[in-house]
Protein backbone atom coordinates (compact mmCIF):
# COMPACT_ATOMS: atom_id res chain seq x y z
CA UNK A 1 0.00 0.00 0.00
CA UNK A 2 1.50 3.31 -1.11
CA UNK A 3 -0.08 5.28 1.74
CA UNK A 4 1.53 2.97 4.34
CA UNK A 5 5.08 4.16 3.73
CA UNK A 6 6.91 2.84 6.79
CA UNK A 7 10.22 3.95 5.30
CA UNK A 8 9.26 7.48 6.38
CA UNK A 9 10.15 8.07 10.04
CA UNK A 10 7.07 10.15 10.74
CA UNK A 11 4.75 7.49 9.30
CA UNK A 12 6.55 4.75 11.23
CA UNK A 13 6.31 6.62 14.55
CA UNK A 14 2.61 7.37 13.93
CA UNK A 15 1.94 3.72 13.06
CA UNK A 16 3.65 2.45 16.23
CA UNK A 17 1.86 5.05 18.35
CA UNK A 18 -1.51 4.05 16.86
CA UNK A 19 -0.90 0.37 17.69
CA UNK A 20 0.16 1.22 21.26
CA UNK A 21 -2.87 3.47 21.82
CA UNK A 22 -5.30 0.90 20.41
CA UNK A 23 -3.74 -1.86 22.52
CA UNK A 24 -3.90 0.20 25.71
CA UNK A 25 -7.47 1.22 24.95
CA UNK A 26 -8.53 -2.41 24.44
CA UNK A 27 -6.75 -3.47 27.66
CA UNK A 28 -8.30 -0.72 29.78
CA UNK A 29 -11.80 -1.27 28.37
CA UNK A 30 -11.54 -5.00 29.01
CA UNK A 31 -10.18 -4.50 32.54
CA UNK A 32 -12.87 -2.07 33.62
CA UNK A 33 -15.61 -4.09 31.98
CA UNK A 34 -14.62 -7.10 34.09
CA UNK A 35 -14.40 -4.95 37.23
CA UNK A 36 -17.87 -3.55 36.62
CA UNK A 37 -19.26 -7.08 36.35
CA UNK A 38 -17.45 -8.82 39.19
CA UNK A 39 -16.25 -6.29 41.79
CA UNK A 40 -18.24 -4.48 44.42
CA UNK A 41 -17.26 -1.08 45.78
CA UNK A 42 -15.26 -1.14 48.97
CA UNK A 43 -13.24 1.25 51.03
CA UNK A 44 -13.77 4.23 53.31
CA UNK A 45 -16.05 7.02 52.14
CA UNK A 46 -15.20 10.67 52.60
CA UNK A 47 -17.33 12.69 54.99
CA UNK A 48 -18.64 14.91 52.23
CA UNK A 49 -21.52 13.72 50.07
CA UNK A 50 -23.92 15.22 47.59
CA UNK A 51 -27.51 14.05 47.72
CA UNK A 52 -26.37 10.82 49.27
CA UNK A 53 -23.66 10.24 46.73
CA UNK A 54 -20.29 9.83 48.40
CA UNK A 55 -16.72 9.46 47.20
CA UNK A 56 -14.22 6.82 48.28
CA UNK A 57 -11.01 7.94 49.99
CA UNK A 58 -8.97 5.49 47.95
CA UNK A 59 -5.47 6.12 46.68
CA UNK A 60 -4.89 6.74 43.02
CA UNK A 61 -5.22 3.49 41.04
CA UNK A 62 -1.90 1.78 40.50
CA UNK A 63 -2.31 1.77 36.73
CA UNK A 64 -3.03 5.49 36.67
CA UNK A 65 0.09 6.18 38.70
CA UNK A 66 2.20 4.13 36.32
CA UNK A 67 0.73 6.03 33.36
CA UNK A 68 1.39 9.42 34.98
CA UNK A 69 5.01 8.48 35.71
CA UNK A 70 5.45 7.17 32.18
CA UNK A 71 4.08 10.39 30.66
CA UNK A 72 6.40 12.51 32.82
CA UNK A 73 9.44 10.41 31.90
CA UNK A 74 8.44 10.48 28.23
CA UNK A 75 8.08 14.26 28.38
CA UNK A 76 11.61 14.67 29.74
CA UNK A 77 12.95 12.27 27.09
CA UNK A 78 11.16 14.12 24.31
CA UNK A 79 12.30 17.58 25.42
CA UNK A 80 15.93 16.78 26.19
CA UNK A 81 16.70 13.79 23.95
CA UNK A 82 14.08 12.91 21.38
CA UNK A 83 13.34 16.31 19.87
CA UNK A 84 16.45 18.53 19.98
CA UNK A 85 19.02 15.84 19.18
CA UNK A 86 17.09 14.02 16.50
CA UNK A 87 15.45 17.25 15.28
CA UNK A 88 13.84 15.53 12.33
CA UNK A 89 10.95 17.13 10.49
CA UNK A 90 9.50 16.76 7.04
CA UNK A 91 10.03 20.48 6.44
CA UNK A 92 13.67 20.14 7.46
CA UNK A 93 14.06 17.15 5.17
CA UNK A 94 12.49 19.12 2.33
CA UNK A 95 14.80 22.09 2.96
CA UNK A 96 17.83 19.78 2.89
CA UNK A 97 16.70 18.30 -0.41
CA UNK A 98 16.15 21.79 -1.86
CA UNK A 99 19.58 22.94 -0.66
CA UNK A 100 21.19 19.86 -2.22
CA UNK A 101 19.38 20.48 -5.51
CA UNK A 102 20.30 24.18 -5.50
CA UNK A 103 23.96 23.31 -4.89
CA UNK A 104 23.86 20.91 -7.83
CA UNK A 105 22.11 23.56 -9.93
CA UNK A 106 24.63 26.27 -9.08
CA UNK A 107 27.56 23.96 -9.81
CA UNK A 108 26.08 23.07 -13.18
CA UNK A 109 25.29 26.61 -14.26
CA UNK A 110 27.99 28.72 -12.61
CA UNK A 111 30.16 29.01 -15.75
CA UNK A 112 27.52 29.80 -18.36
CA UNK A 113 28.47 31.64 -21.52
CA UNK A 114 26.77 34.94 -22.31
CA UNK A 115 24.63 33.24 -24.95
CA UNK A 116 23.49 30.58 -22.46
CA UNK A 117 22.64 33.29 -19.92
CA UNK A 118 20.52 35.07 -22.53
CA UNK A 119 18.67 31.86 -23.39
CA UNK A 120 17.99 31.09 -19.74
CA UNK A 121 16.89 34.68 -19.14
CA UNK A 122 14.49 34.54 -22.07
CA UNK A 123 12.83 31.42 -20.65
CA UNK A 124 12.46 33.10 -17.26
CA UNK A 125 11.11 36.28 -18.83
CA UNK A 126 8.43 34.46 -20.81
CA UNK A 127 7.23 32.64 -17.69
CA UNK A 128 7.55 35.39 -15.04
CA UNK A 129 7.49 38.76 -16.80
CA UNK A 130 5.77 38.61 -20.19
CA UNK A 131 2.25 38.73 -18.72
CA UNK A 132 2.74 42.45 -17.98
CA UNK A 133 5.71 43.52 -20.10
CA UNK A 134 4.63 41.58 -23.20
CA UNK A 135 6.43 38.81 -25.04
CA UNK A 136 8.52 41.42 -26.86
CA UNK A 137 9.23 43.28 -23.56
CA UNK A 138 7.98 46.58 -25.01
CA UNK A 139 5.53 47.12 -22.13
CA UNK A 140 2.42 46.55 -24.23
CA UNK A 141 1.78 50.17 -25.20
CA UNK A 142 2.50 51.68 -21.80
CA UNK A 143 0.81 49.09 -19.60
CA UNK A 144 4.21 48.29 -18.06
CA UNK A 145 7.81 49.45 -18.35
CA UNK A 146 9.44 49.14 -21.77
CA UNK A 147 12.28 46.79 -20.88
CA UNK A 148 13.86 47.00 -24.32
CA UNK A 149 15.14 50.44 -23.28
CA UNK A 150 15.63 49.67 -19.59
CA UNK A 151 19.25 49.51 -18.44
CA UNK A 152 20.48 51.22 -21.61
CA UNK A 153 21.10 54.74 -22.89
CA UNK A 154 17.49 54.93 -24.08
CA UNK A 155 16.27 54.27 -20.55
CA UNK A 156 18.34 57.14 -19.19
CA UNK A 157 17.08 59.50 -21.89
CA UNK A 158 13.49 58.50 -21.10
CA UNK A 159 14.03 59.17 -17.39
CA UNK A 160 15.59 62.57 -18.11
CA UNK A 161 12.52 63.60 -20.11
CA UNK A 162 9.77 61.90 -18.08
CA UNK A 163 11.18 61.34 -14.60
CA UNK A 164 11.01 58.21 -12.48
CA UNK A 165 9.05 57.13 -9.43
CA UNK A 166 9.22 54.44 -6.78
CA UNK A 167 12.76 53.17 -7.30
CA UNK A 168 13.94 54.00 -3.78
CA UNK A 169 10.58 53.39 -2.15
CA UNK A 170 6.86 53.94 -2.70
CA UNK A 171 7.11 57.69 -2.10
CA UNK A 172 10.38 58.41 -3.89
CA UNK A 173 10.27 60.34 -7.14
CA UNK A 174 12.69 61.93 -9.57
CA UNK A 175 10.91 64.72 -11.47
CA UNK A 176 11.58 65.14 -15.16
CA UNK A 177 14.36 67.57 -15.96
CA UNK A 178 12.02 69.90 -17.96
CA UNK A 179 9.68 70.14 -14.94
CA UNK A 180 12.65 71.41 -12.90
CA UNK A 181 13.43 74.06 -15.50
CA UNK A 182 16.33 72.17 -17.08
CA UNK A 183 15.83 71.81 -20.82
CA UNK A 184 18.27 69.38 -22.38
CA UNK A 185 18.47 68.96 -26.11
CA UNK A 186 18.29 65.48 -27.57
CA UNK A 187 22.05 65.58 -28.15
CA UNK A 188 22.74 66.65 -24.56
CA UNK A 189 20.47 63.94 -23.12
CA UNK A 190 22.19 61.33 -25.28
CA UNK A 191 25.60 62.62 -24.15
CA UNK A 192 24.63 62.34 -20.48
CA UNK A 193 23.40 58.78 -21.05
CA UNK A 194 26.69 57.92 -22.77
CA UNK A 195 28.69 59.34 -19.85
CA UNK A 196 26.66 57.43 -17.26
CA UNK A 197 26.98 54.13 -19.14
CA UNK A 198 30.69 54.52 -19.93
CA UNK A 199 32.11 56.13 -16.79
CA UNK A 200 29.65 55.85 -13.90
CA UNK A 201 27.91 52.52 -14.46
CA UNK A 202 29.78 49.27 -13.88
CA UNK A 203 28.78 48.37 -17.44
CA UNK A 204 31.66 50.60 -18.68
CA UNK A 205 30.36 50.57 -22.23
CA UNK A 206 28.28 52.88 -24.39
CA UNK A 207 26.99 53.00 -27.93
CA UNK A 208 28.02 56.65 -28.13
CA UNK A 209 31.69 56.81 -27.06
CA UNK A 210 32.24 60.10 -28.86
CA UNK A 211 29.68 61.80 -26.57
CA UNK A 212 31.21 60.75 -23.24
CA UNK A 213 33.33 63.87 -22.67
CA UNK A 214 30.44 66.17 -23.51
CA UNK A 215 28.14 64.08 -21.33
CA UNK A 216 30.38 64.57 -18.31
CA UNK A 217 30.25 68.32 -18.79
CA UNK A 218 26.46 68.36 -19.15
CA UNK A 219 26.08 66.02 -16.16
CA UNK A 220 27.83 68.57 -13.96
CA UNK A 221 26.43 71.79 -15.44
CA UNK A 222 22.82 70.59 -15.68
CA UNK A 223 22.75 69.71 -11.99
CA UNK A 224 22.66 65.90 -12.19
CA UNK A 225 25.55 65.74 -9.73
CA UNK A 226 23.66 67.76 -7.13
CA UNK A 227 21.49 64.70 -6.39
CA UNK A 228 23.42 61.74 -7.79
CA UNK A 229 26.85 63.05 -6.72
CA UNK A 230 30.01 63.48 -8.76
CA UNK A 231 30.60 59.73 -8.67
CA UNK A 232 26.97 58.96 -9.54
CA UNK A 233 26.41 56.81 -6.45
CA UNK A 234 23.52 58.94 -5.29
CA UNK A 235 22.28 59.65 -1.79
CA UNK A 236 20.22 57.32 0.39
CA UNK A 237 16.54 58.10 0.02
CA UNK A 238 17.21 61.01 -2.36
CA UNK A 239 18.71 59.76 -5.61
CA UNK A 240 19.47 56.35 -7.10
CA UNK A 241 22.94 54.82 -7.34
CA UNK A 242 23.76 55.07 -11.05
CA UNK A 243 26.88 52.93 -10.71
CA UNK A 244 24.72 49.80 -10.75
CA UNK A 245 22.48 50.96 -13.61
CA UNK A 246 22.25 48.37 -16.37
CA UNK A 247 23.68 45.58 -14.18
CA UNK A 248 22.14 42.57 -12.48
CA UNK A 249 22.52 44.41 -9.12
CA UNK A 250 20.12 47.08 -10.31
CA UNK A 251 17.64 44.45 -11.48
CA UNK A 252 17.95 42.54 -8.19
CA UNK A 253 16.84 45.62 -6.23
CA UNK A 254 13.74 46.07 -8.38
CA UNK A 255 12.86 42.37 -8.20
CA UNK A 256 13.20 42.38 -4.42
CA UNK A 257 11.37 45.62 -3.65
CA UNK A 258 9.01 45.99 -6.58
CA UNK A 259 8.33 49.47 -7.94
CA UNK A 260 5.39 51.82 -7.63
CA UNK A 261 6.12 53.82 -10.73
CA UNK A 262 4.41 56.40 -12.90
CA UNK A 263 2.75 53.70 -15.02
CA UNK A 264 1.55 51.46 -12.21
CA UNK A 265 2.72 49.17 -9.45
CA UNK A 266 5.11 46.30 -10.08
CA UNK A 267 4.89 43.75 -7.24
CA UNK A 268 7.91 42.39 -5.45
CA UNK A 269 9.26 39.09 -6.75
CA UNK A 270 11.08 38.33 -3.51
CA UNK A 271 8.80 35.32 -3.04
CA UNK A 272 10.22 33.76 -6.23
CA UNK A 273 13.61 33.29 -4.52
CA UNK A 274 15.61 33.88 -7.70
CA UNK A 275 19.24 32.96 -7.16
CA UNK A 276 22.19 34.99 -8.40
CA UNK A 277 22.57 33.02 -11.64
CA UNK A 278 18.90 33.47 -12.52
CA UNK A 279 19.04 37.22 -11.92
CA UNK A 280 22.18 37.49 -14.06
CA UNK A 281 20.43 35.50 -16.78
CA UNK A 282 17.35 37.73 -16.71
CA UNK A 283 19.57 40.83 -16.77
CA UNK A 284 21.55 39.42 -19.71
CA UNK A 285 18.35 38.81 -21.67
CA UNK A 286 17.03 42.34 -21.04
CA UNK A 287 20.43 43.74 -22.02
CA UNK A 288 20.29 41.78 -25.30
CA UNK A 289 16.98 43.32 -26.38
CA UNK A 290 16.99 45.86 -29.18
CA UNK A 291 15.42 49.15 -27.99
CA UNK A 292 11.90 49.81 -29.26
CA UNK A 293 9.93 53.03 -29.02
Automatic annotation (TrEMBL):
Molecular functions (GO terms): electron transfer activity; heme binding; metal ion binding; oxidoreductase activity
Co-factor note (free text): Binds 2 heme C groups per subunit.
Gene Ontology biological process terms, A to Z: oxidative phosphorylation; proton transmembrane transport
Entries under Gene3D superfamilies matching the protein: 6.10.280.130, Cytochrome c-like domain (1.10.760.10)
Residues that, per the record, bind heme c 1: 129, 132-133, 266
A cellular component term, taken from the record's GO annotations: plasma membrane
Cofactor(s) of this protein: heme c
Compartment list: Cell inner membrane
Membrane-spanning ranges: 12-32, 62-80
Family of this protein: Belongs to the CcoP / FixP family.
Residues the record lists as binding heme c 2: 177, 224, 227-228
NCBIfam families membership: ccoP (TIGR00782)
Name of the protein: Cytochrome c oxidase subunit III
Cytochrome c domain: residues covered: 116-200, 210-290
Pathway participation: Energy metabolism; oxidative phosphorylation
InterPro entries: CcoP_N, CcoP_N_sf, Cyt_c-like_dom, Cyt_c-like_dom_sf, Cyt_c_oxidase_cbb3_su3, Cytochrome_c_Oxidase_Subunit
Keywords associated with the record: Cell inner membrane, Cell membrane, Electron transport, Heme, Hydrogen ion transport, Ion transport, Iron, Membrane, Metal-binding, Oxidoreductase, Repeat, Respiratory chain, Transmembrane, Transmembrane helix, Transport
The UniProt record lists the keyword Thylakoid: no
Amino acid sequence: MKWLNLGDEINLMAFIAAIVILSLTAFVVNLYTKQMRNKTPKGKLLDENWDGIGEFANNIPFGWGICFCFVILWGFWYIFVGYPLKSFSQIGQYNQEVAKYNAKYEEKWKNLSQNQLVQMGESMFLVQCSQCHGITADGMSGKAQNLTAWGKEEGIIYTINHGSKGLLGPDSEMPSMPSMGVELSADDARAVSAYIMADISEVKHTKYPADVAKGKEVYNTAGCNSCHGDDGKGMDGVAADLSSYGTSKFLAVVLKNGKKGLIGRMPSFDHANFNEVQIKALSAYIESLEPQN
